Amino acid sequence: MMHFLQNFEYFIQNDVIDPNWNILMSQINKAESLEELISKHNDFLDRTLKDCMLTHSKLVESFSSIINQCYSFPNEVMKNIKSNNINKLTKTIEIFHDVIINSVSSFVFLLYGKNGDHFEHNMIFLVEKLDFNYFYSNLNVDMASLNPALDSGL
Hints:
Number of domains: 2
Oligomer: single chain
Protein name: Gamma-tubulin complex component
Strand content: under 5%
Pfam families: GCP_C_terminal (PF04130)
Structural class: mainly alpha
Keywords: Cytoplasm, Cytoskeleton, Microtubule
Distance between the termini: 24 Å
Subcellular location: Cytoplasm, Cytoskeleton, Microtubule organizing center
Number of strands: 0
GO cellular component, one term: microtubule
């Protein structure tokens, strides 16, 4: 979970927002009118939304699912710790482990696209960070069963 969250946050900040901000600042310095300034700002917002994957409904849905699982995990673990039921705690951890791996796999495969060619220009950086050791790429999973959205394209 931490690996996913840290790398996603790094990607958004360093591979999306910072470069887009630098572009905006250079364009603002060259702007000659208020309309041009507003236009450049709108371009910045559009580009940032797209590069943060907020315009891809399937990616947003998949990311939201991962975040919900990350939020639910500590609550479930704490419930089991308070009940002093080690077997149930172990089972809960195993279940969350499997669910997170499947969810992140699904997210990575969505980023890859059906044929590996649906990358936005910088999404490759996120895939490289998440799947740096090809863990998700090498899983023996049926991609269509992981996420039916792959069959319909992105």
